[in-house]
Structure formats: C-alpha cells, structure tokens
Design brief:
The complex is a heterodimer of chains A (117) and B (264). With 117 residues, chain A is an all-alpha fold. Helices cover 83% and strands 0% of the residues of chain A. Chain A has one domain. In chain B, 48% of the residues are buried. Chain B is globular. Chain B has nine helices and seven strands; from the N terminus they run αβαβαβαβαβαβααβα. Classes of the chains: A mainly alpha (117), B alpha/beta (264).
Chain lengths: 117, 264
Amino acid sequence: MLELIRSRRLRERYAILWLVTGIVLLALSLWRDGLNTLAGWLGVETYPPSVLFAVASLFILVVLLHYSTVISRLADQNTILAQRLALLEHELEGRGESAAGATPSGPVEDSASDRRA
Amino acid sequence: MAEVATGAPEAPSSRPLGAPELVSALAKRRRIAIVPALNEEGSIGAVIDEIKAFDPGFEIVVVDDGSIDGTREIARARGVHVLRLPFNLGIGGAVQTGYKFAFERGYELAVQIDADGQHDPRELPAILRPVLAGEVDMAVGSRFAGTKGYRVPFMRRLGTRLFAGVISAIVRQRVTDTTSGFRAVNRRGIRLFAADYPHDYPEVEATVLLIKHRLRLCEVPVAMRERTAGRSSIRVPHSILYMVKVLLAVFVGIFRRTVPLEER
C-alpha cells in the first residue's frame, strides 16, 4: 500500500480509505473481546466473527459507491474534453488553411468572420 | 441520389421554401445544420447536398462520432465544417458538440438532421416555421403527429406510443414522436443544449430538459423516409429493456439539478 502511494500509482485520498478499512478489519480480527462486544451491540449472539464479514462488506460497498461517483465524474469530464478537442482541432485547421492562403471555400471564410465578430 | 458537389440544383421544383415571409425571416438569421454522423458514408453526401439545395445559406456542421469509414472525407470534400470526435461519444455527446459549435460561433438558429437520410431537408420549412415565428424555442418533426404516413414495425410503434403517453404527461403537452432527431432550435435552445444535453437517450430526455427550463416546444408533422443506408441503432429484442431504461433516465432527469447557463 505504502509502495503504491510512493510510486504515485495511488492517490492519497484513496489510500486513506483503504488504510482505514485495513486497520479496522485487522484490529477487529486480533482484538477478540472488541469483536465480541461489537457483536453484542449488534445483537449477533451465535457467531461473533460474522460481524467481521458484515463490516468488511460495508466498507467494500462504500468503496464501490465512491468509485461509481468517481467514474461518473471522469466520464463527464472525458466527454467535455473530447468535445473541446474536436472544436479546437476544427478551429486550428481553419486557421492553418487561411494562413496558407489555401482554398477560399465557405467554412474558412466564415470562421475568419466569426473571429472578427 | 444526386452527386452534385455544391448548391444550386437546376430543377426549380426542388426549391419549396414556401411562404415568402419564411424565406425572408430565414435569411435574417445566422443558421446552421447540425448533422451527427457515425459511419454514414453511404448517405452523408446526399444529405449535405440536399440541405444546400434547400437553402445554400445554411452552414453545415458534420459531427463525426468516431467513424471508421469515409464519412469524414466525403463531408470535407463538400467544404462543410467537420468536427471529429477522438472517440465515440454516442449520439448525445455528438449532437451536443454541434450545439456547442453553434453556440460559440453565435448562430441564432440550428436544425438537427440525421446523416442516415431519413430526414428530408425538404421538410425543413415545417419545423422552421414555428421557431422563426417566435412561437416556440424548439420544433420537432414528428412521424406520427399528423396524417403523413410512416410505416413502423409493430413493437417499435408500441414502444413509441407508450413513451409518447408518459412524456406527454410529464411535459403536460401532447408529444407523439419522442425519438425524433429532426428539430429546429432557436438561440435559447442552442444555449441550453450547449450547456446541458442528455447522453443516454438524448431525444427523449432533451424534450423533458427543455420543458424543465421553461422553454417552449411544439411538434409538427413531417414525412420521413426509410433509411437510405446503414441501420437503426435500436433493435427489437432489446426494446423492452430499452423502454425501461429510457423511462428511468427520464425520471432521473426530472429530479436532477439544472446546469447554470453561460451568458452570451
């Protein structure tokens, strides 16, 4: 985990999420009394370690939900970037052609007048 | 299809602009036709030629949504604007690129026409008229609104009817053809769609979006053609799932926060 952060393959904010998850689960695994107490609070009497699984799956759900939001945002930004790229590329082509004094076709002239406007 | 490179058709019959007021109103506006295209090399040339034949004053912007055929070259050869997306964004993302182009370059009127040839540019006066008259912000060409016939497979028709009912209830206005991508939009509409355009099922959702922003909408009957090339992106076996997903998207859209619009 630390190596992933150090080598910049993982951003800190995700690392914190994972570290917290790991520490909590590890603590509950080792500290049996704590687990039993927690199980007592939750009303789990038959098999306290099942609380461990419950906690783990809760964390995983939170992480996944978080990823969904991140992916959605990235997808939106990706779309905006792709659209911007297409628009800028078109503008660049227009400039290149008018600078070279090439074919005075409709769109080139128009893009020039657009810039004046 | 005629392979004429630019404007001016010889036959005077192919100039049905209709009322002279329409022509003069149209001539006053900077206008653009947005043509989203994905692998439509078989029809894109004819569509461009037909728009130019209808009105040479229309600038045309072809939004190439990652085509791997000759679509882009054919459009370029006709001297129209071509926006090339670096990868496939889907119809919504492609159309929005066109609206962004129109917004940033100050166009006052935009029409949206599919590249597959099913929208006939000669039907443009029908959707232009209500917008030019200032009655609405967007006019949609509908296959079902009037008497002009259009043959649709049964399942497709059922789905369309169901949507139409739900959407009509939501926008409190009769809508018959929710999947039509044949529309004319004024500056307010261009501004809205440049800022916010739905990605998943854009035609249906855009209708709801428009009403949510208190823009005015109307439908006009138009005749549409069978596709001249390519094939529909909607297939029958998936249509039920499709319907569920669209309705879900629409309901999400109703409750979604609105995006602030750029002033210009």
